[in-house]
Amino acid sequence: MMGCCVLPNEYTFSAVLPICGGIGVVCNGEQVHCLILKHGFVLDLFVGSALVDMYGKCGNMRLAMKVFDEMPERNLVSWNSMINVFLGNKMYGDAVGVFKEVVGVKCVGMNEVTFSSVLSACGNLGGLDIGRQVHGLVLKYGLVSFGYVKNSVMGMYVKCGFLEDAYKLFRTIEDRDVVTWNVIAMGCVQKGKFREACKFFWDMRCEGISPGEASFSTVLHAAASIAALEQGSMVHNQVIKTGFGCNLRTVNSLINMYAKCGCLADGYRVFDECEGKNVVTWTTMISAFQQHGCAYQAIELFKNMLDEGIKPCYITFVSILSACSHTGRVDEGFYYFNSMSEQHNINPGHQHYACMVDLLCRAGRLGEAKNFVQSMPIEPGASVWGALLGACNRFGNLEMGVEVAKRLFEIEPDNPGNYVLLSNIYTRNGRVKEASEVRRLMEGQRVNKKTGYSWIYFKNK
């Protein structure tokens, strides 16, 4: 159009700026910004709002704020754009701050978009007090009838950990949509109420609501968490019926569910039939093999993934290093560990270092493991020291065990497992008095070891 000497207007710029934001390439947006200045549309309200949105979506909050601050006039669209870009860039406190400014501007009202955005920010902040105040304003402005505003209020209560408040609101909603059901089911999962989450899924189906990707992901996670194979299998039937069998997020959840329920073969069948696997799909299956003690299959699958040209992620390496640890493949484990930074540009984290310590410890090389910990470029965390303490317990290394346990008592003084391991090390070395002292220390610190328990699934319960 520019090549044909057709001059753009405010509608042109309002249309093309969201495209620049959508592809996230800020240089294109800056070129359009220059044209806006050149053609004199910088004062247009909708063009200014689109500029704010574009810079925000490109992650350049400095320019987004600069454009917003320089706008001579602002309307509700402008304010909403600013709240949304803060929200999109996870600057939740700033989003709430802009909302407070909007409340103070009497000539600017607030609509359902404003409230939906700020409620999401409150939820992510865990700001229940401000969230309740916003809920009050929703009622005051008469916007409670908007379905997605109700869903946003529910989502805020769920994210803040107040599931009962979300329940109360849920019961008042007559025109529930799939998002309403998803929000309440996700809240149940977050609170560990997995059976309730499954029930909400089936209640939703009874009301004739078609589940979506988030619905399946939530209910499959719930079924996996309580190893409810029968529930998971019935959900799998629903996945096939509703045409979500090719949805990658759903496929990944199915693989995980079958693995957690002990049906590795079914999980692999879902994996094998999946087309267009992404790194999450491969990693989920590798983790499933590793968790079931099939370390050889996990390593072979990892090699197949690399042959397919799929770039591994942080979690992939946690699984593969753990697999090497459980099969005593020390050299291979170090090869994969070193390849993280050298070949895949991934900086090893605490979990990877913990796997390497465990790898050396399982091979009986405790001295090397300790030297490895001391040479770490990052501060060793509880998982790293915990792996070393577990090895000291297995091999009865008293001197090193006492030293490591003292470090763990400083890092996580409320973890009963560390005290129990040290007590066991003393007992194994015939130091009963010292073991008793550790137990008394636990009592003095009011650290209690929780009783273990197991799940079984019997007669649909």
Q: Which features would summarize this protein structure in a list?
A:
461 residues, mainly alpha, 71% helix, TPR-like_helical_dom_sf
Folded structure, characterized:
The protein contains 26 helices and no strands. Helix 1 (10-23) packs antiparallel against helix 2 (26-38) and helix 24 runs antiparallel to helix 25 (416-428). It is an all-alpha fold.
Q: Low-confidence runs (pLDDT<50, min 5 residues)?
A: none
Number of helices: 26
Return the string of H and E elements.
Answer: HHHHHHHHHHHHHHHHHHHHHHHHHH
The biggest sheet, with number of strands, parallel, antiparallel or mixed sense and barrel status, is: none
Shape: globular
Number of strands: 0
The fraction of residues assigned to DSSP E strands is: under 5%
Assign the structural class, choosing from mainly alpha, mainly beta, alpha/beta, alpha+beta, or little secondary structure. mainly alpha
Helix residue percentage:
over 70%
Radius of gyration: 28 Å
Lay out the secondary structure:
Layout: H1 10-23, H2 26-38, H3 45-57, H4 61-69, H5 76-88, H6 92-104, H7 112-125, H8 128-140, H9 147-159, H10 163-172, H11 178-190, H12 194-206, H13 213-225, H14 229-241, H15 248-260, H16 264-273, H17 279-291, H18 295-307, H19 314-326, H20 330-343, H21 350-362, H22 366-374, H23 382-395, H24 398-411, H25 416-428, H26 432-444
Helix pairs in contact: 1-2, 1-3, 2-3, 3-4, 3-5, 4-5, 5-6, 5-7, 6-7, 7-8, 7-9, 8-9, 9-10, 9-11, 10-11, 11-12, 11-13, 12-13, 13-14, 13-15, 14-15, 15-16, 15-17, 16-17, 17-18, 17-19, 18-19, 19-20, 19-21, 20-21, 21-22, 21-23, 22-23, 23-24, 23-25, 24-25, 25-26
